Amino acid sequence: MTEFLKVVKYDEAVAKIKQHFPVRRIERLSLLSASGRLLAQDIIGPEDLPSFDRSTVDGYAVRAEDSFGSSESLPAYLDYQGEVKMGEAAGIKIEKGQCCWVPTGGMMPPGTDAMVMVEYTERLGDDTILIYRPVGPGENLMLKGEDVKRGQSLFKPRKVLRPQDIGFLASLGINTIDVYQPYKIGIISTGDEIVPIDINPAVGQVRDVNTHALASAVYCCGSIPCTYPIVKDDFQALKAIVLKALEENDILLMSGGSSVGIMDVTIDVLLSIPGSELLFHGLAIKPGKPTLAVRVNEKMVIGLPGHPVSALMIFSIICSPLLKTDSSQRVTVKVTQNIASQPGRDDFVPVVLEEKDHQLLGRPLLGKSGLMSILSLADAFIHIPYEQQGILAGSSITAWLF
Amino acid sequence: MTEFLKVVKYDEAVAKIKQHFPVRRIERLSLLSASGRLLAQDIIGPEDLPSFDRSTVDGYAVRAEDSFGSSESLPAYLDYQGEVKMGEAAGIKIEKGQCCWVPTGGMMPPGTDAMVMVEYTERLGDDTILIYRPVGPGENLMLKGEDVKRGQSLFKPRKVLRPQDIGFLASLGINTIDVYQPYKIGIISTGDEIVPIDINPAVGQVRDVNTHALASAVYCCGSIPCTYPIVKDDFQALKAIVLKALEENDILLMSGGSSVGIMDVTIDVLLSIPGSELLFHGLAIKPGKPTLAVRVNEKMVIGLPGHPVSALMIFSIICSPLLKTDSSQRVTVKVTQNIASQPGRDDFVPVVLEEKDHQLLGRPLLGKSGLMSILSLADAFIHIPYEQQGILAGSSITAWLF
């Protein structure tokens, strides 16, 4: 029995998998299709933005010095030279003692360096504008290049493209971009006792929860799940489907039955493939001891525990961080009760989130870890590190949403 | 000019839109396709789970009373009756003084009511097992129906289906479910100065950022965006495209140019359609005053400000909460500096999130709100309510991730 020859710590396991994780391929997409995707190129400011000095208010464009000293009782008198229309170039050149109307977003005419808001002005006949308040140079306008300068480094590779980033790229006229392709991830459930979910399990059989939960988890990480039929505890059958799945995917998730035998067969199958290397077998984690990772050439196989609760937890703590592209997945919570933990392993405890007095609380779900319903109740889980002997009620700790 | 006849507060605006929000249609999907979707039915426990009493450890199934009083120095002697195999029905009936081997997850044989872990036992020859520790009835096993009881209400409609929920439904043998269809949302940019993003804007023109940013935002809310060509400030042209988009979508997002005229034309077009009703025009919100909502029969049209920063912020605070299905979008942050706010309007301030000493900090981006780069820098925004006159550095406040 190839049983847990050397159990590794959580950090080591993640580091080993990360080191050998498949390289993401790159594809070129239109900006409209790139939402939520991972940028695969540098973005350099292609031009100045705004491309001209523009007003940020409705009012009159002036030379600031012409407004100096003006007040309610002693306004400045400026010659009105017409208006700059929205969406049109400013054709009027403004000289000393002159002004012209510019709407919000409109282009500042040559010769002007400030905007006086319409609220602080009055029109006197056709030709004269009274200015009741001084403005400084640059006031109420946005200078050319103030938002983005040409040649400036804007985004680095591996940035997740959110709506505001898509909008920002659009404002720069960037229409297509290089992004990383999502991983294709094969999912294989193994075990003599596993039956498809639409079959009524005979006594002693269990439904194939893992294919469904893991496919959903893969999908929610932005990767593409590919499911395979359940495989029984048989070397040849397992090898055939593993080779096919490795051919079709970047990463393979296998979840073993609870029987010890299937884990051995899985390892035998994987290590019989030329170019394979066992990264680890056995994790000092609760739940999820019987986890393994094997590199097969440039692909990665992760063997998860057969029990669905453990399988999904291990996926969330080992695979999600490497697959997921958004960082908004951790929150700080106050733990509502003491949680015991054994030093010498990393504990992961599902919690329910509750908000009270503007504080986010994490109520641990300490029931039997075998209950399927536990995971479905959980909003997040907290991590009690290797060295730590539990945590006290009221402590703040990071919770991972899941 | 139909300008802000009655400016409404943020809460009122959301309530009005919510009241008339289109009804979601229902579709039936296979469980594997339902990740992240919104459940549209009740889920009732179809059967007991587990369907039999099962062991949660490797060891011997016993009658608990037979182990009472046993200890390291004085073990109980039980007759070994064979083993229950994983994935098989327990055929052995256990009488007083007997036991049998059951693996983790295996079925408890009739007559037994507890499991003794293998660590606390010793095998003596072929027929006798020594028990070194007493167990109570029910110890180390999961009772039939302990996870789910038949007829129990499990999920209610409008629950978002996460991987663990998909797994839970799979464990119940539920293979297809009713979920709500995603909304189809049309997006129309209007304004004489707006040009497609792949065209180099002439002076005074601006690129069509809103179509891109809003389509991405709609997509990230789990809805289906449908974009239309830019429309100029013309009643007939706008009406034609609005009618087409209303036909093809549940909801319509229109973003007006910065010119005042286009907003009037938009309202005229919408109110010229039989069955339309103006819900509000003008919001006491910074940014985003020129927002409007019109119900057109069972569809909803929301007019957003022309400025991209305002348009995306208003989408995030008005539309996202009604469209988004996951609740993991709010975190509590400590504000790093004082933020002034004018009572009598709701302020929304973009912030950068930073973690320090296990505390999540929100650093407000107080630059010029016109900068496109601001939104792309922001991780979240905070809401300063209507009545409040700013917030002090160090206060805890809810931030909405976006």
Folded structure, characterized:
Two copies of one chain form a homodimer. By secondary structure, chain A is an alpha/beta fold. Chain A has four domains: 10-25 and 182-323, Molybdenum Cofactor Biosythetic Enzyme, Chain A (3-Layer(aba) Sandwich); 26-44 and 152-180, Alpha-Beta Complex (Molybdopterin biosynthesis moea protein, domain 2); 54-142, Molybdopterin biosynthesis moeA protein, domain 3, CATH 2.170.190.11; 330-401, Beta Barrel (Beta-clip), CATH 2.40.340. Helices cover 21% and strands 30% of the residues of chain A. Chain A has helices at 10-19, 64-67, 163-171, 209-220, 235-248, 260-271, 308-323, 372-377, and strands at residues 26-30, 43-44, 54-55, 59-62, 76-83, 98-102, 114-117, 121-124, 128-131, 141-142, 153-155, 176-180, 184-189, 194-195, 206-207, 224-227, 251-255, 276-281, 285-286, 292-296, 299-304, 330-335, 346-356, 359-364, 380-384, 396-401. In chain A, strands 7-4-6-5-9-8 form a six-stranded mixed sheet. A six-stranded mixed sheet of chain A has the order 16-13-17-21-20-18, sandwiched between helices. In chain A, strand 8 (121-124) and strand 9 (128-131) form a beta hairpin. Chain A is elongated, with a radius of gyration of 31 Å. The two termini of chain A are 34 Å apart. The mean pLDDT of chain A is 88. At the A-B interface, helix 3, strand 15, helix 4, helix 8 and strand 26 of A face helix 3, strand 15, helix 4, helix 8 and strand 26 of B.
